[in-house]
Amino acid sequence: MTTKLIIDTDPGVDDAFAIALAALSDDVDLLGVTTVFGNVGVETTTRNARRLLALCKRGDVPVAQGAARPLVHEHPHRARYAHGADGLSGRSAALPEAERPVEAGGAVWLLSRLLEQSDEPVTIAPIGPLTNIASLLSVRPDLHHKIARVVIMGGALLHGNTTAAAEFNIWSDPEAAHRVLTGGEVPCVLVPMDLTYRCAVDLEWLDALTASGPVGAALTALTPDYLAHYRKALGWDGMVIHDAVAVAEVIRPGILRTVAVPVAVETSFGPSRGATVVDQRRPELRADTDGATTTTASTTVHTAVDTDLDALRAFLLERLTMR
C-alpha cells in the first residue's frame, strides 16, 4: 500500500535523513515538502530541503516556504549548536543545487492545494515547529477530513533537550503545538524524544550507510557537527535521528508502539514553557479526578513509547540504501 505524504520540516541533519527516507521509499507518494523556521532560519531550511530532494533525484516534489517565526512570540534562538550555522554541519553547499523553483503560494497554500487534489486522505509529518500545521488547521477546517493523521516528531515525557522541561520543536512554538495537539480535529501521533533517543545509531550504522552509495555518503557527510553535539548528549559516539523515527512510523504504521493518552502543552512563561504534559495515569484514575485537569478525552494523542530498536534501525538503513 502506498502512503500519500507531505513533510513539514526545518532541515536540520535529522530532517535530512527523514526527507531521504521518504524520498527513496517506493511505497511513499511524497506529494510535497513545506518548510518552517527552527533549526535555522526559514530561508535556509527551504534551501536545504530543495537540495536534499535534488540529492535524492526527486525534483518532481514541490517545496513551499512557510512560517519564518512562531504564531505569537519571537523565537529565542536556533539550534546551530547541534546542526551548524547552515543546518547541515556547514556542508549544505556540497549538495546539488535544486532546479525546481520554490512554489509561489507559501506553505499553507501548498498544503491546502495538495489536500484538495488528493483522492484519498494524506498523512502530514511535521518534523519541525508546528506553526504551519496550526495555521492550516485554523484557516482550512473544510480540509480536516482529507488528513489521515498527523505524525509529529516532538515533545518529551520525562525531560527536554532545549530546556529541562521542553523538547526543541514544541518549545519553538508552544502555542502552535497546543493548537495542533489539543484541538482534537485530526488524528495525531506524537513521537517524543524519549523514544527517539533510544533509537540512536552508532558509527557502525553510519559506516554502513556511507558505504552504500552516493546518497548514503552525502547524508553522512552532513553529520560532523551533529555527531559532536550528540557525543556530549549521549556520552558515546553516535547520534539521534529523531525525525527519521517519526517518518518510519508514517511508512510502516505500527513500527512504533503507541498509547492513547491526553496531552497538553505548557504555554506559560515559566521554566516549563513548551513542555508536553502527557497524562499517563490509568483511565480510571483520570475519570475520578475529572475536572482537576484541562486535558479531556477529546485531546487524546497516540504517543509512541516503544519499538523493536534493532528492527527499527535495520528498517531505516534498508530504506536509506535502496538506491
From TrEMBL:
Top-level lineage group: Bacteria
InterPro entries in the cross-refs: Inosine/uridine_hydrolase_dom (IPR001910), IUNH (IPR023186), Ribo_hydro-like (IPR036452)
Residue ranges of domain Inosine/uridine-preferring nucleoside hydrolase in the record: 5-308
GO cellular component, one term: cytosol
UniProt GO molecular function: purine nucleosidase activity
GO biological process, one term: purine nucleoside catabolic process
Region (Disordered): 274-296
UniProt biased composition (Basic and acidic residues): 279-289
DNA-binding as UniProt keyword: no
UniProt KW keywords: Glycosidase, Hydrolase
A matching Pfam family: IU_nuc_hydro
Protein known as: Inosine-uridine nucleoside N-ribohydrolase
Species name: Saccharomonospora xinjiangensis XJ-54
Upper lineage: Bacteria, Bacillati, Actinomycetota, Actinomycetes, Pseudonocardiales
